[in-house]
Amino acid sequence: MTDYFTEMNFEPIDENQVEAHQLMLMVRYLRQSGYDELFDTQFNTERLPPPASKELIKNLKSRSVTVHDEKCSICLAPNENLTGNEKFLTLPQCNHDFHAECILPWLERTNTCPLCRTEMKTDDSEYEEQKKRKQRKQENVEAIHNSMFG
Q1: Does a structural domain hold residue 149?
Q2: Please, which residues have CB within 8 angstroms of residue 36's CB and are 6 or more apart in sequence?
Q3: Same domain flag for 85 and 42
């Protein structure tokens, strides 16, 4: 009768590779248990914010630019050279105004205000869930701090 490894066409693990094999089994177990997502949320800081929600972009308040308005913080174009069809769009969370042709390409790439970095709503459910987890974690830290120091 042949042994298991011969029958399955496997070679036994070399004694020098046992530790590496055990580490790989541990990594596989942790990934399958959902710890990879936890690890990513804790240590993966490379993910850029996704674009702003299409609904948010569609519903931005629009108004005409006047000579008395502040300059657009993106293009810094003076308001004295108005042609009459320039529009300012107002971001909902921070109320900053920008020319429509300046802010729309920005919001199609990222969900933050270019001036104050306030985050807007996105269509990326995974990113929104990550923000909620981060907020809950911050609230837990504050609750622990307040319970210790009043």
Answers
A1: no
A2: 30
A3: no
